[in-house]
Amino acid sequence: MPLRLPDRLPAIDLLKQENIFVMGDKRAHEQDIRPLRIVILNLMPLKITTETDLIRLLSNTPLQLDINFMKLKSHTPKNTPIEHMMMFYRDFESMRNEKFDGMIITGAPVEQLEFEDVFYWDEITQIFEWARTHVTSTLYICWAAQAGLYYHYGVPKYSLDKKMFGIFPQRMLEPLLPIFRGFDDEFQMPHSRHTELHREDIISNPELTLIAESEDSGVSIVMARNGREFFITGHLEYSPDTLDKEYRRDKDIRDDVDLPRNYYLNDDPQQGPHVTWRAHANLFYSNWINYYVYQETPYNIEEIK
Q1: % pLDDT > 70, the chain
Q2: CB 3.0-4.6 Å disulfide test: which of 50, 190, 222, 267 passes with 44?
Q3: Could you please report the per-residue DSSP string of the chain?
C-alpha cells in the first residue's frame, strides 16, 4: 500500500524518482481503508529534507499511512519558504483535538541551550503531554529524545568535550523486542550532537528501559511505557549524504571540525560515504509501524488514551 501525502508536497517527486509509491489525497479518498494517521513535528531547519528522509523510511510498509505535519506556533523557521509551511503544516493548536496512531518528533539545533532556555519550551512540553493521551506510539529523535526524557522522567543531558559525529556500531540489550525483529547482532547509527545522556541515569529509572547502546556513542535507544515512547539519540533517518553536507558546511566556517567517524571510504571525503545503516533504519521504522502502531492502536482512533 502507498503513503498518503498532501498533494504537491515536494517529497512526492523526489520519492517517485526512487520508485516509492505515494498517493495524493484525491486518490486516497477513493479507497475504503482506514489509514494509520502519522503526525510529524518537524523541528529541523531544512524542513523539506527532513520530510523526505522520514517519508522514505515510512514508505517501507504494506500499510496505508496518512502523513500530517505539525509546526510550532511560537517558532517561525528561517530556512523553509513560508508558502511551504502554510500549505503543508498546521499549528499544534489546530490539531490538539485530533488523535493519531503514531507521532515522530525530530531533533532541533538547540541542544547546547538549557531546556528551559529554548524559547518554545512551553509549547513543546504541552505537545509532549498531549502525545501521551492522543498518540498510540511516539518516536523522539536526537534533541527531542533528550528533551522528552528530561521532561517526562527528569533525565539530564551532559555536554561533550567534542562533537559526537559519524557512524557508530550499536548493540541491542533487549534483542527479543519486536522493534528489533530481523536485526543483526550489531547495527550502525549516524550521530551528530554536542551533548549526551548517561547510562546510569537511564538504568536507575524503573520506568525506562535501555534497549540499545554503543561503546563509542553511548546511550542510543530508550523505551518507555511498553513501546508507547521511544527515545533515539541518533539519526537512523539520515540519507547517505547528510553528514557529508554537514561536514563540508562546517569546515568552511570553523577550525575545530573533525571528519565524521566511520563514514567516508578510507576516511577520504573525495571517495564519498560508505553507507552502512540504511537497511536497519528501514527495518526499525517498519517494525515500529507494524508492532507498536498498527497492532496496538484501536480501529476507532478516538479510543486512543
Answers
A1: 88
A2: 50
A3: --EE--TT-HHHHHHHTTT--EE-HHHHTTS---PEEEEEE--SSSHHHHHHHHHHHHTSSSS-EEEEEEE-TT---SSS-HHHHHHHEEEGGGTTT--EEEEEE---TTTTS-GGGSTTHHHHHHHHHHHHHHEEEEEEETHHHHHHHHHHH----EEEEEEEEEEEEEEESSTTSGGGTT--SEEEEEEEEEEE--HHHHHT-TTEEEEEEETTTEEEEEEEGGGTEEEESS-TT--TTHHHHHHHHHHTT-S-PPPPBTTBGGG-GGG-B---SHHHHHHHHHHIIIIIIITTS-SSGGG--
Cα separation, 140 vs 143, in Å, equals 8
Question: d(Cα 77, Cα 47) in Å, to the nearest integer?
Answer: 9
pTM, rounded to two decimals: 0.89
| Euclidean distance between CA atoms 300 and 278, whole angstroms | 33
**pLDDT class for 20, splitting at 50, 70, 90?**
low
Residues 146 and 197 sit within 8 Å (Cβ to Cβ): yes
C-alpha triplet 143, 88, 146: angle, nearest 5°: 10
Kindly state the percentage of the chain with pLDDT values over 90. Answer: 73
Q: How many CB atoms lie within 10 A of CB 171?
A: 13
Task: Please count the other Cβ atoms lying within 10 Å of the Cβ belonging to residue 170.
Answer: 23
Q: Which of 176, 178, 191 is nearest to 141 (CA)?
A: 191
Within 8 A by CB and 6+ apart from 24, the residues are 4, 5, 6, 7, 12
For 249, residues 6+ apart whose C-beta sits below 8 A from its C-beta are: none
Which residues form the catalytic set? Answer: 142, 235, 237
Please name the residues in contact with 218: beta carbons below 8 A apart, sequence gap of 6 or more.
Answer: 164, 196, 197, 198, 199, 233
